[in-house]
Amino acid sequence: MRIKFDEQLALLNHELIAMGALCEEAIATTARSVMDNDRSLAGRVRELEYQIDQKEREIETLCLKLLLQQQPVARDLRLISAALKMITDMERIGDQALDIADTAGFMGPLAAEDAGLLGDLARTVVGMVTDSVDAFVRQDRDFAVAVMHRDDEADALFDRIKKSIIDRLAQSRGEGEYALDLLMIAKYLERIGDHATNIAEWVEFAETGLYKGGEVI
Fold first, then answer.
1. Average pLDDT, 10 consecutive residues per value, the chain (217 residues)
2. What is the Cα 28 distance to its own chain's centre?
3. In this structure, what are the phi and psi dihedrals at residue 216, rounded to the nearest 5 degrees?
4. pTM here?
């Protein structure tokens, strides 16, 4: 019985890795769409978002089967519960990647300064998503905590972009529409970082039973 359960847990890990990879590709593709002013990539982002939704349903079904058929306890129960929470965050990452692609469709090329800051933010949140899923697969609490700390980096980059937009609007009110679209894209990226942080927090819960650094569940 335990061997079968371990096989199903291994499948769960595999499926989470696959869903994480889809999220990474969706963010990277939508960022490239913005940075390179290539709106043709929006179709690929939409396809990836659909695949992420499908993967969420598949993993949810697998988790429910594990709960009903195996009736796990202690750490195994926390692991499956964490996976159910994680896929919700990953599904939202897919949604927000598509939101970015849709918003970018109304923009022209980025100014050089904006491209630099937005590129830094995109690379940061892609790394956070990758590492948060890796932390779950590796069952590495320390790796998850490192992701949580990087949320401050993502927030700081978002604040720099926001300040840059405010300064530009103070000098030229004619860029209002561009500035609003840029701010929306930056906010979506910042929210993706928040979702990666949520995933990391559920990794910590799976390993320790502690949520958000101290609350016992």
1. 81 92 93 88 95 97 91 87 94 96 86 87 92 88 93 95 86 78 94 96 88 63
2. 11
3. -85, 130
4. 0.90
